[in-house]
């Protein structure tokens, strides 16, 4: 129970940088969509390029975050040497990547469809290289349980990013007549998004000066690196196909969608998916705290019981978040401008896919703890294949809705494979029927919300509030013993 309390407290702190931080970052969604019209296709460009950068970040880190945790937690391990090896490897690969992109910038830009703006590609190449380098530095903070510094640096990036975006999109247009604002061009709003990202990412790097002081090139060990790479390469494959499950639809869409309004449709989908990203926030905060927790806990029976219990609470909490969004979609939709609203029908599907991604992450520890990481690569590859098949077959017919359904089908496949194969290699007593019951209950309430048409906004919100209250009441009743213990401790403290 003490270890679960530690997991919870770390999740709360990490949540400051992921859940709260990303919620603050939602300010950018209305900012972009209200200043970049759907018809212009500008937000489609942003969606497409950020999909590429997400994929590249996984490639440039090549599984070294998890590898770092695994080797640093081994008995007798020299954590500083492991850190130096991981940082040297990722830093070298990232530096070579930037040099190659800059040398081949023109052909790469033409191939991606951005021959008119190669600067977008150059800027984001530097950004993703810095992000990869910082990933190992952030992993060091997580290993050392420096959750507050982790959160402070993440929030520093977000606050600075939001501040500069507010200046460019709200202040600069009013000041452009001033002499020192001659650099501003309203037609280059998309470019400014990328430039601001570069500035913020570069500045955050200076916050790691203490960790960088511990970096010793003399600590580098080729023999250790060979062992780390052997462990990491299946994670790289797993990571690539895993991130492809999240971004491949946005990369493939320009090549599959037949209409001339391709960028507009991609922008609509990309903007609406942002509403569903509350699940990504929760999963990310959970992952940051849970990964070091599981590796430190080992493979004993108590660890397995904890994994089963955490899976149950993870599903319950994420389904609660799902109910909040779908029941109050009439409120959340104002995050984006009305000319993007046609894509709101994809939000519940994408949210459910994100929940399944979190379940898959939870299930994935059986092959990480048993060093059978190749299974992760195999299962994720199968899931990615399902996603590609759905997109190729359906995007030409139903547009971006195929992207939403493809993600759900891909993660659903991964969950099934990981559970049934994992139970044979590393049995964890997950409460399967309880979890399935919560999924079924949430989907029944969602169906009740969507199938009953109420024209009056306030009556519709009241009806959906009743549905949400039913789910919350059922959740609290099922865990009433835990609720009583928590409430009792709180009353004692008072």
Question: What report would you give on this structure?
Answer:
The chain has 494 residues and is mostly helical. Helix content is 81%, strand content 0%. It has 23 helices and no strands. The chain has helices at residues 2-17, 19-25, 28-35, 42-61, 64-72, 79-103, 105-112, 118-143, 147-175, 189-205, 209-213, 222-256, 262-276, 278-297, 301-327, 329-332, 347-363, 365-369, 374-398, 401-425, 432-451, 457-478, 480-493. Helix 5 runs antiparallel to helix 12, helix 12 (222-256) runs parallel beside helix 19 and helix 15 runs antiparallel to helix 17. The longest helix has 35 residues, at 222-256. The mean pLDDT is 84.
SS content category: mainly alpha
Please write the string of helix (H) and strand (E) elements. HHHHHHHHHHHHHHHHHHHHHHH
Radius of gyration of CA atoms, rounded to a whole number: 23 Å
Report the strand count.
0
Low-pLDDT sequence parts: none
The count of helical stretches stands at 23
What proportion of the residues form beta strands (DSSP E)? under 5%
The overall pLDDT, averaged over residues, is 84
Give the CA-based shape.
globular
Q: Give the distance, in angstroms, between the N- and C-terminal Cα atoms.
A: 22 Å
């Amino acid at each position: 129970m003490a270890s679960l309390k530690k997991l919870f407290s770390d999740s709360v702190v990490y949540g400051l940088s992921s859940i709260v931080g990303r919620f603050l970052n939602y300010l950018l969604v209305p900012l972009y969509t209200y200043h970049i019209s759907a018809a212009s296709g500008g937000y489609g460009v942003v969606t497409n390029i950020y999909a590429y950068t997400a994929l590249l970040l996984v490639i440039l880190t090549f599984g070294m975050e998890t590898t770092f945790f695994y080797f640093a937690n081994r008995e007798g391990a020299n954590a500083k040497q492991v850190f130096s090896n991981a940082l040297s490897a990722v830093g070298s690969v990232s530096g070579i990547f930037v040099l190659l992109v800059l040398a081949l910038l023109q052909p790469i830009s033409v191939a991606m469809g951005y021959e008119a703006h190669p600067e977008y590609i150059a800027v984001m190449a530097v950004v993703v290289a810095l992000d990869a380098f910082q990933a190992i530095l952030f992993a060091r903070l997580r290993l050392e349980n420096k959750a507050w510094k982790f959160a402070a640096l993440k929030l520093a990036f977000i606050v600075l990013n939001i501040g500069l975006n507010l200046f460019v999109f709200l202040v600069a247009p009013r000041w452009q007549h001033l002499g020192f604002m001659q650099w501003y061009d309203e037609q280059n709003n998309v470019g400014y998004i990328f430039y601001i990202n570069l500035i913020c990412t570069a500045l955050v790097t200076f916050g790691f000066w203490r960790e960088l002081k511990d970096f010793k090139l003399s600590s580098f060990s080729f023999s250790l690196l060979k062992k780390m790479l052997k462990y990491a390469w299946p994670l790289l494959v797993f990571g690539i196909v895993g991130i492809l499950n999240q971004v491949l639809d946005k990369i493939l869409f320009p090549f599959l969608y037949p209409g001339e309004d391709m960028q507009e449709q991609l922008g609509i989908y990309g903007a609406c998916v942002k509403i569903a990203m509350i699940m990504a926030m929760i999963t990310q905060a959970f992952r940051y705290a849970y990964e070091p927790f599981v590796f430190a806990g080992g493979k004993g029976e108590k660890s397995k019981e904890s994994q089963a219990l955490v899976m149950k609470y993870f599903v319950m909490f994420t389904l609660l978040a799902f109910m909040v969004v779908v029941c109050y979609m009439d409120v959340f939709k104002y995050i984006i401008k009305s000319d993007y609203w046609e894509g709101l029908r994809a939000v519940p599907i994408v949210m459910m896919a994100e929940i399944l991604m979190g379940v898959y992450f939870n299930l994935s520890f059986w092959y990480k703890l048993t060093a059978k990481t190749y299974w992760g690569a195999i299962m994720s590859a199968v899931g990615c294949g399902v996603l590609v098949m759905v997109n190729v077959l359906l995007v030409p017919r139903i547009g971006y809705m195929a992207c939403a359904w493809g993600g759900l089908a891909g993660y659903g496949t991964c969950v099934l494979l990981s559970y049934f194969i994992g139970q044979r290699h590393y049995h964890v007593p997950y409460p399967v029927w309880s979890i399935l019951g919560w999924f079924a209950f949430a989907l029944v309430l969602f169906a009740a919300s969507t199938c009953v048409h109420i024209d009056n906004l306030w009556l519709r919100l009241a009806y959906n509030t009743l549905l949400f209250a039913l789910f919350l009441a059922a959740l609290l009743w099922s865990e009433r013993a835990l609720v009583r213990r928590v409430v009792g401790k709180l009353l004692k403290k008072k």
